[in-house]
Each structure stands twice: as structure tokens, then as C-alpha cells.
Amino acid sequence: MWERSSISCIYRKNDSKLEMRIMYKKILVAYDGSEGANKALEAGINLAKIHGAELVALSVQEGLPRFASTIDEVQEEKAYANQHYGKLLEKARARAQEAGVELKTIMRPGHPAKTIVQVAKEGKFDLVLVGHTGLSEVWAAFLGTTAEKVSRHAPCSVLIVR
């Protein structure tokens, strides 16, 4: 007999053992278009199907110019970033739709790890999915990966997908 518990899981009472399955209601996928992010998206789609969970993809815009010559330069960079990340999220949404899963999307400026953790807290997500490596592999060797930072600071479970 399956019963719900207060910690987002279901468990089955059996004479010899207790079997428990964790249930995810809200899943956040960090998505930058990299190979790792695409693998995380596929895992998110599969988990959303299994758990009937809400699936959200987050793209973090990093690298807007800090010392721009003009305001126009900043606006051009922001417009380019919005277009670039918007296309990435649209491709992700199309992939999820092919699989029969609705994908909501969020685009935010900021530092990737900090922004992912912040959105996970604000949205009260049960699970965050991140690719093992993203677009900034060179910097990861020196500073640590986004996945490592998210796993240390996220308010929920984190699945790092290889």
C-alpha cells in the first residue's frame, strides 16, 4: 500500500521492509545550450514525466560589459544576450514539447551559480539539474564548476548530469 508523507515522497508499508520513493513536484534545469545542459534537459524531461512535475529551464545571462564606452553599447549587448538566450530557451521548449512535457522558461542576468541557487530558493524547487560541464570549462579548472557551487549552496537536491 502506497501512502504520501510530508517530505515529498511516497512510501509503501510492507511486513519486511519500508520502501520509499522521492517525489519531485518542481524541477529546475540550468540551461546554457552546452552539451552538459542538453543532457540535464533530457534528464529533466524524463523526471518530469515520471513524477508529473513542473519543469522549468533557467538561462543565466553572464558577461554584459562592465566598462562600456557608451550606453548604446550596453543596450546592444543586452539585446544580443536576450536574443541569444531566448533562442536557446525556445529550442529547449521545443525539445520538451516533442517529448510531451510542458517547459516553462526563465532568463536572468547574473553570475550562473548564484542565480541558479537564488531562483531555486525563490521558486521553492525540489530538484535542480545541472550539466557536469557547461560553456566555461577553461575557467572551471581554476575556479570550480558551476555544478559544484550549486551543489554546495542550493536549498534542495541537486543532480549533476554527465
UniProtKB/TrEMBL annotation:
Pfam families noted in UniProt: Usp (PF00582)
Main localization of the protein described in the UniProt heading: cytoplasm
Residue ranges annotated for the UspA domain, each copy included: 23-162
InterPro entries listed in its UniProt record: Rossmann-like_a/b/a_fold, Universal_stress_UspA, UspA
Presence of the UniProt keyword Cytoplasm in the record: yes
UniProt-annotated location(s): Cytoplasm
Keyword Cytoplasm attributed: yes
Entry keyword set: Cytoplasm
GO CC, alphabetical: cytoplasm
Similarity-based family: Belongs to the universal stress protein A family.
Protein name per Swiss-Prot or TrEMBL: Universal stress protein
Source organism (scientific name): Desulfobacca acetoxidans
